Amino acid sequence: MSRFMSQSPALPTSVIQHDTLFTTPLDKASRFSFDEQVVACFPDMIRRSVPGYGQVLAMLPILARRHCKYRQQTTDGQRVSRIYDLGCSLGGASMALAGEFAPHDLQIKAVDISPAMTTEARTLLSDNYPEHDIEVITADIREIELEPCDMVILNLTLQFLPAADRVAVLEKIYAALSEGGILVLTEKTHAFDEQYDAWLVERYYDFKRANGYSEMEISGKRNALENVLITDTLDEHHSRLDAVGFARHLTWFQFLNFVSIVAFK
């Protein structure tokens, strides 16, 4: 099956467990977190909850081949394309790239704040791509220093940061990118028009129903994500990219209320 037709993240099927986190009622105070329980079922959760995620991953190597031009240099003097996967979770984006590039072509730095995620990502990446230069880092992307790079991937990550911190993260990314480099920003959004937004949200719930989620599961996850995942409008994303210095940026992908933007340095 074509990678473009698959909704599955680039993870071995042996690690995929069924998402049953919200099959029973949760305490109203419970909040979503990227802990061991989420790690265990994360690929299934993403496949069934994020429209178009597989297509976004499949495009990353294509974008990288076009825009990563070996601008960086390793400590031993070798020219490479350095890519950051910020908010890497289990490393799906890093695996999508490693699977399409020779080991000596890329230097990937995958960063996530969740130790449960990075522990599993480190194992998956080292097991599947032992010859690639992939470093998995447990850190807050708001605090980590970025080396000069050719591409930054920010997939479904900015939405989990406080709104007040988002500009600073994008400013840091812009400063680290070499001229000609790109940022790929993928986010869940909401529409400014309430009627339009309500239609998108309900179709999104239909998407989840079609993927086997019950009304209790849909409601439970929605409640758990309240005040944890805070969306912006598409216009807000583009305005923010303008503000930090990206002169060119476009929405290259949209599936319901999920969008992916590419911004050019």
Under CATH, the topology of the domain at 48-191 and 226-264 is which? Rossmann fold
Helix content: 25-40%
Shape: globular
State the helix count: 8
The main sheet comes to: 8 strands, mixed
Multimerization status: single chain
Strand content: 15-25%
Tally of strands: 8
Spell the H/E element sequence: HHEEHEHEEHEHHHEE
From the alpha-carbon coordinates, what is the Rg to the nearest angstrom? 18 Å
GO molecular function: carboxyl- or carbamoyltransferase activity; methyltransferase activity; S-adenosyl-L-methionine binding
Family: Belongs to the class I-like SAM-binding methyltransferase superfamily. Cx-SAM synthase family.
Pfam family, one: Methyltransf_25
EC number: 2.1.3.-
Would you kindly provide a written description of the structure presented here, covering whatever features stand out?
The protein has 265 residues and is α/β, with parallel strands linked by helices. It has a domain at 48-191 and 226-264: Vaccinia Virus protein VP39 (Rossmann fold, 3-Layer(aba) Sandwich). The protein is built from 8 helices and 8 strands. It has helices at 36-49, 53-67, 92-98, 115-128, 166-176, 194-210, 215-225, 234-244, and strands at residues 72-73, 79-86, 106-112, 133-138, 149-155, 177-188, 248-255, 258-264. Strands 1, 2, 3, 4, 5, 6, 7 and 8 form an 8-stranded mixed β-sheet that branches. Helix 5 crosses helix 8. The chain is globular and about 55 Å long. The two termini are 34 Å apart. Its EC number is 2.1.3.-.
